[in-house]
């Protein structure tokens, strides 16, 4: 049974608690439930336990934007400045030219910024993310739109990655702007909007942005974090005080059960079926799954809130989430309705591997094929000399490339394959791809983890 294999992955990975659900048509066909909500109390996880889902939240924000577009409140090709005039004078992007569609697809030209260090409260947690000393100063806390724009205006030395539409770089800040759009056009808080317009109609009764919605001990999985960044090597500690400021909810604030996420994925099946009342038209839902741009991974593109690829010739969409004691992953074959949702209460859990185990065991399909364009490359090749150096982003990620030796934010990695488009590396976190973006002069930047990292010497 695949559930035993998932439990083994959890045990090997030092994961406190997790749930994996597989299904189709919005119905859960089978699940695996593992571990505890809280290492302190030992309360068991159940199928009704909600977990943070981090960046899986982005598709909910994108769905809200699609609803507003369908109502006539905005157009996807409309300049964002029409509703958020504050972006016009921001040095970090060409604000006058950014369209709503550019934000949805991460091609607005926004570079990775240090905003996340100011919207994630550590609450005294010793393992909370810390801003590296080479990252530009950021406020200790950003809790309002005015403060956010004030901070971005101060970044006079941070240049945009390019004109809107030219460069893909995954951007939490872009989805923060989309959240502001939802609130300004609807007159509602994003959390209230999604609760009434998406969660409730889809029957997602265990989903919320506000953790205080969960009262019972097994209703919410407490955040945990690895003491050294690797739960399998060092064990975990509780991090219950962490939370995102509401301003950041549109980029990563949802809590949900795995069952609720399977219900949600029904929205994107090609049949256009709905649960209760229609939330999105079939055309709008499919538009979110239509690639708008090439991403930084060979063979994978990005729509609106979902990565898009192919497995055995069938369209396959997915999105992961990680941070603040959270790991999550959702995936769907829109044309056949096969879906999976994985949630875990520690950062760094190998949730994609858990989903692959469940999908292989239940449906007999290998979803890892979506990455075969780069993972299946033949060993060998040489790193291009002009791409040796140190590459960084203000999100705190650093790459040092020196021949076949690569250091990823302090962790060693080995180059296993290289060709003119980039290189595949292997580290304790698994295999990753480092790309050579054609929009920049050779050696000026690389792509990693969906982001553009610039050469700093």
Automatic annotation (TrEMBL):
InterPro entries referenced in this protein's UniProt entry, alphabetically: AmpC-like, Beta-lactam-related, Beta-lactam/transpept-like
Superkingdom as given in the UniProt entry: Bacteria
SUPFAM superfamilies, per the entry: beta-lactamase/transpeptidase-like (SSF56601)
UniProt domain Beta-lactamase-related: residue ranges: 3-357
Pfam family, one: Beta-lactamase
Protein name, per record: Beta-lactamase-related domain-containing protein
Native source organism of the sequence: Microlunatus endophyticus
């Amino acid at each position: 049974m695949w559930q035993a294999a998932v439990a083994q992955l959890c045990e090997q990975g030092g994961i406190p608690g997790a749930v994996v659900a597989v299904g189709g048509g919005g119905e859960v066909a089978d699940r695996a439930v593992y571990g505890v909500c809280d290492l302190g109390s030992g309360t068991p996880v159940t199928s009704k336990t909600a977990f943070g889902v981090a960046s899986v939240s982005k598709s909910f924000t994108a769905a809200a934007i699609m609803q507003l577009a369908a109502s006539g409140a905005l157009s996807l090709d409309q300049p964002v400045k029409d509703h958020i005039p504050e972006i016009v004078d921001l040095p970090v992007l060409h604000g006058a030219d950014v369209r709503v569609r550019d934000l949805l697809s991460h091609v607005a030209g926004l570079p990775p910024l240090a905003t996340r260090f100011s919207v994630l409260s550590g609450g005294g947690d010793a393992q909370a993310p810390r801003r590296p000393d080479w990252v530009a100063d950021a406020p200790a806390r950003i809790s309002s739109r005015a403060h956010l724009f004030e901070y971005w205006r101060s970044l006079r030395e941070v240049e945009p990655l390019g004109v809107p539409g030219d460069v893909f770089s995954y951007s939490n800040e872009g989805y923060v702007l989309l959240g502001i759009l939802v609130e300004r056009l609807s007159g509602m808080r994003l959390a209230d909007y999604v609760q009434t317009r998406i969660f409730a109609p889809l029957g997602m009764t265990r989903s919320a942005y506000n953790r205080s919605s969960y009262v019972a001990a097994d209703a919410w999985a407490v955040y945990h974090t690895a003491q050294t960044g690797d739960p399998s090597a060092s064990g975990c500690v509780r991090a219950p005080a962490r939370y995102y400021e509401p301003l950041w909810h549109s980029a990563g604030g949802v809590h949900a059960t795995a069952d609720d996420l399977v219900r949600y994925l029904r929205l994107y099946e090609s049949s256009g079926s709905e649960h209760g009342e229609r939330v999105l038209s079939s055309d709008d839902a499919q538009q979110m799954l239509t690639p708008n741009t090439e991403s930084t991974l060979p063979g994978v593109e990005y729509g609106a809130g979902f990565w898009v690829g192919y497995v055995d010739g069938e369209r396959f969409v997915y999105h992961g989430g990680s941070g603040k004691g959270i790991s999550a992953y959702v995936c769907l074959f829109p044309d056949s309705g096969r879906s999976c949702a994985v949630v875990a209460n520690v950062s760094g859990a190998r949730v994609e591997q858990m989903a692959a185990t469940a999908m292989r065991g239940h449906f007999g399909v290998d979803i890892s094929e979506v990455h075969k364009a780069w993972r299946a490359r033949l060993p060998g090749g040489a790193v291009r000399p002009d791409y040796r150096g140190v590459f960084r982003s203000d999100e705190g990620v650093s790459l040092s490339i020196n021949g076949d030796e690569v250091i990823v934010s302090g962790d060693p990695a080995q180059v296993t394959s290289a060709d003119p488009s980039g290189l595949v590396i292997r580290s304790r976190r698994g295999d990753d791809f480092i790309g050579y973006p054609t929009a920049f002069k050779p050696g000026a930047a690389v792509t990693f983890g969906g982001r553009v990292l610039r050469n700093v010497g």
